[in-house]
Design brief:
By secondary structure, this protein is of the alpha+beta class. It has 3 helices and 9 strands. The longest helix is centred in the first third of the chain and has 10 residues.
Length: 117
């Protein structure tokens, strides 16, 4: 169970979805517009990504906290789930309606789809 949760949060839940409709977000302003005043949710995860660089919320019964910056077209974050340090990772971000996709390792790793509410 722990490994599943850690993997899901390390992505910021791998989910099947068609990539054709997703549009890449390559600048900070567009990213902030997409997430501002919205909760990012998915099966047991609820996160707020604030314009001032904070990540706060809960996942699978534990607090989530972290910081993010925008670097060279990527969302880069440090993340903690409870006391567990999930590390630093820069991720490609894409948007399809109310679904936002984070793909780890600058777009070459696994992806996580979250709903904007």
């Amino acid at each position: 169970m722990f490994r599943l949760v850690a993997a899901a949060l390390a992505m910021l839940i791998v989910a099947p979805a068609s990539a054709e409709a997703f549009q890449k977000i390559s600048d900070k302003t567009r990213f902030v517009q997409a997430v501002e005043n919205k909760e990012l949710t998915r099966m047991g995860i609820g996160l707020d990504v604030t314009p001032d660089g904070k990540i706060i919320g809960r996942a699978f019964g534990r607090d989530v906290r972290g910081n993010w910056t925008w670097q060279d077209g990527y969302f880069c974050r440090d993340l903690y789930w409870g006391q567990r340090d999930l590390g630093y990772n820069c991720q490609e971000v894409k948007l399809n309606g109310q679904t936002i996709r984070f793909t780890s390792d600058r777009g070459t790793g696994q992806f996580a789809d979250l709903t904007l509410r």
